[in-house]
Design a protein that fits this description.
about 100 residues; mainly alpha; elongated
């Protein structure tokens, strides 16, 4: 039974799955390790930093997407949100990149 639905980063999912002692959970943890080097704590800090930018267009899902993909330049961010209903201006992109490059 699903008690709560919440968007989490890959790093946070890895930490939750580490607590489950099943073969499937271990396989997923191994898969996730290929795609993220962040710790759950670093992902949480990054999430808070991005949310503190107060970019109204960005939903929680978008912030998680930024953390999971860690785009390296403005073009990567534009591609990441190409199918979104909104577009980010250059100032917003610059602020996002500044935070992403710190971690």
């Amino acid at each position: 039974m699903i008690k709560e639905s919440k968007t989490i980063t890959l790093a946070e999912a890895r930490e939750l799955l580490k607590k489950a002692d099943t073969d499937k959970a271990k396989a997923v943890v191994g898969f996730i390790k290929k795609f993220t080097k962040l710790s759950a704590q670093d992902a949480f800090k990054l999430k808070k930093a991005l949310e503190s930018l107060n970019i109204a267009k960005l939903r929680e899902e978008d912030v998680v997407k930024l953390i999971d993909f860690k785009p390296e330049d403005a073009e990567d961010i534009r591609k990441l949100f190409a199918s979104s209903e909104f577009s980010l201006d250059q100032d917003e992109i610059t602020k996002i990149l500044k935070i992403l490059k710190k971690k």
